[in-house]
Design goal:
The protein is α+β, with helices and mostly antiparallel strands. About 35% of the residues lie in helices and about 30% in strands. It has four helices and ten strands. The strands form three sheets. The protein has a four-stranded mixed sheet with strand order 1-2-4-3, covered by helices on one side. Strands 5-6-10-7 form a four-stranded mixed sheet, covered by helices on one side. A hairpin with a 3-residue loop joins strand 1 and strand 2. Helix 1 runs parallel beside helix 4 and helix 2 runs parallel beside helix 3.
C-alpha cells in the first residue's frame, strides 16, 4: 500500500495530510482558503491520488504559512508513500489546456528538488488567495517531495485558468511518474541504484 500520513504542528500551522498514491482521486480538503482548496481538489482528482488535508493556519496574519506548510506536508506525504521509489516510471509530463490557457509541466522524481517557474499573474488575488503564493506552494511541494519540477505557462490570459492549468498539469504529470512500470516493477529507476 503506497499510503502515508504526515502531521505538522508548529506555532504557525497545524496540519494533517494523508495520501494514497493508488487511489481514485477522492479528496477531503479544508485549508481555510477556498481557492487553495479548489486547486488541491484538482490535484487530487486529476492525479488519482486520494488526498485528505486539514490545515489550521494563522490566517489572521496572512496566507503564507498556511500555503507553504501545506505544500511541505503534501510533499512529505508523497515522498513517504513512494518509499524507495522501486518500480515507478519516475518521469512525467503534461500539456494542460484550459480554454485560452496552455501550461506545460514536466517532472522527475529524482530526489533532487528544484523548481523552474515561468508563470505570471496579472491579478494580485484570486478569490481570497494571493497569487504570489502559487509559486511558493509549488516550490514547497517540490522541495519536500524531492521532485525536479518545471512549470511554464505557454499562453494564458484568465488568471483562474492559469492557476488551474498549472495544478492540473502537475496532477497529470505526477500521475504518470508515480505509476508502477510493469516492465521494471522490481527495479529502482536509476543507473545509480538509488534515488
Amino acid at each position: 500500500m503506497r499510503t502515508a500520513t504526515i502531521t505538522r504542528d508548529t506555532s504557525e500551522t497545524k496540519i494533517a495530510v494523508t495520501v494514497d498514491l493508488d487511489g481514485t482521486g477522492l479528496y477531503d480538503i479544508d485549508t481555510g482558503v477556498g481557492f487553495f482548496d479548489h486547486m488541491l481538489e484538482q490535484l487530487s482528482r486529476h492525479s488519482l491520488i486520494d488526498l485528505h488535508v486539514r490545515t489550521k493556519g494563522d490566517l489572521h496574519i496572512d496566507q503564507h504559512h498556511t500555503v507553504e506548510d501545506t505544500g511541505i506536508a503534501i510533499g512529505e506525504a508523497v515522498a513517504k508513500a513512494l518509499g524507495d521509489k522501486r518500480g515507478i516510471v519516475r518521469y512525467g509530463d503534461a500539456l494542460s489546456p484550459m480554454d485560452e490557457t496552455l501550461t506545460r509541466v514536466a517532472l522527475d522524481i529524482s530526489g533532487r528538488p528544484w523548481l523552474v517557474w515561468k508563470t505570471e499573474f496579472s491579478q494580485k488575488r484570486l478569490g481570497e488567495m494571493d497569487t504570489e503564493m502559487f509559486q511558493h506552494w509549488f516550490h514547497s511541494f517540490a522541495q519536500a517531495a524531492g521532485i525536479t519540477l518545471h512549470v511554464e505557462t505557454l499562453h494564458g490570459e484568465n488568471n483562474h485558468h492559469i492557476a488551474e492549468s498549472a495544478f492540473k498539469g502537475l496532477a497529470r504529470a505526477l500521475r504518470k511518474a508515480i505509476e508502477i512500470d510493469p516492465r521494471k516493477s522490481d527495479a529502482i529507476p536509476s543507473t545509480k541504484g538509488t534515488l
